[in-house]
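Possible regression after last week's pipeline update?

I re-ran a chain I had predicted before the update to compare outputs. Posting the input and the new output here so someone can diff against the archived version. Not blocking, just want to make sure nothing changed silently.
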Amino acid sequence: MKPVKKEKHTPKHYLPDTTPKIAAAGATVLVLLVVLSFVLSSGWMHGSSTGIILPGSEGDSPTVGAGSALLTGQSVDDITIDVNNAKTVIATLARPAAYSSRIENTIYYDGGSAALYCHRYARDSVVRTDTLGSDNQVQSTLIRVPDGKVYAWNAGDSIAYQGKAGDFTDDVAAMLPTYEDVLADEVQLTAAGRQDINGEPCIAVTFEQGGYRCVYGISTVSGLLAQASFYDGDTLTRKVTVSEISTETPDSELFTLPDGESVI
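New output (post-update):
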């Protein structure tokens, strides 16, 4: 078995080349927009994004369990949602202990847009994030484990690079805001109600933060983020869509490093 190569710092996460070659000026704009999206997802401009807190890790995020009295999609149907109770309802939604999903993150700029696609797998307090290329194939993988370590490698690598997570999260890797953003004490909702997103019933909330108008849709079925949009005035600057959510436990082989070592 090959030893895991250790790094002092969190490894660089390589983004897929999903856009054609463009002029140097356009490329510079695109890079700046991608950096901006990382800033947004890291919480510097719209609250703390700490990720899904799974059972066994620190935090008080509710999850589905035997005898659970948490709210489900059916029980939420009997509640009138408004700005006064939306945060409480979202906080008490039942959430899966394990899940998988697909994440599409699109950044809009003058003259076009750029997108990042990811797959997310979570179980046993371990989260795997795959960054996908335009051909939908995995280009790079990052796994975060409970002891604060992250492992990262590109497709075809025979070893994983290991580092301390620090302030880097798997949500930053996927540029993913979460339902937890809505629950932050400083967030004051300006609108709340119901909305179907991709055929799934959701609680839609709106709030202002960091100069942006943020509109989040939280699924009442899974309790997880289904969609988030960010506006500068009336201009859409970024949209995140989470789809293909499955609450089946992901296969343990997905949590294996290139050298065959399991992290669960």
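Follow-up from reviewer: compared with the archived run. The chain has five helices and twelve strands. Marking as no regression found.
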